[in-house]
Amino acid sequence: MDWDKLRIFHAVADAGSLTHAGDVLHLSQSAVSRQIRALEDSLGTTLFHRHARGLILTEQGELLFEATSTMAKKLDTAAARIRDSEEEVFGELKVTTTTGFGTLWLAPRLVKLYERYPELKIDLMLEERVLDLPMREADVAIRMKEPSQADLIRKRLLNIRMCLYASPRYLARAGSPQRVEDMAGHRLICQNPVTPQVTAGAELAQRILAQEIHSTLTVNNYFGVLQGVLNDIGVGILPDYLTADFPDLVRVLPSVESGEVPVFLAYPEELRQSRRVTAFRDFVQEEIMAYRRLQAGAPAGGDMV
What is the reported pTM? Predict the structure, then answer.
């Protein structure tokens, strides 16, 4: 089979459209269509069902797409290894983590990594969906649970808890609750319990909402919750790793907190020798150690490991 035709087939199957694949490949729709027809002729089979809504793979097309996906994964891995210099760290690194951890903890610290490796290109993908590392949807993941995918190198970074926080100005105005029942007289800021999030956070939100809270602000990520707390709107449910960077936050009802949430860093076994991955892993571990030192001797909601 012609490698170039396979490359075009893979792009069409991935995009589900001749037009979109052409945009990716910088080819006209007619040129892409001709290559697909030529590949089908050479194989003696139909690879796509053509519908008004787009292209759908046939059974034979599914088999070929599985093979080209494996090829693409191996080629990406080979390219990553080739680009890794023995002396320098440069090129693109795809990192995925949750919106909260990425915006509130990781992104503010990346300036130190760029100072060390100015030619590094980081593609930071913030979402709750767990990306497929073995299929190279990302190179490195920081997740709030232990990854279940096989063939991953994983390291537990720390444990966190979700706790209640408010601003000094809000508490001066509204008073400090002394019991969980007192939360009925306060505005709660939290993620909606049905929003994708760590189970421990959702359970704590449900526990507080059960106190017949009269006024709430729900946001679909912890960055929004933090902004509400900082702007004196109410008492927010936030991860305790924020206390290092926002020391003015006041812990409300210190005995009320979620269960422990483990934070893991993971990457594919095949990227073990990648200097970009190694540089990022070491940087994150150094920042975790700095966080431990900062928290040493101060009250903390979660234990570091």
Answer: 0.69
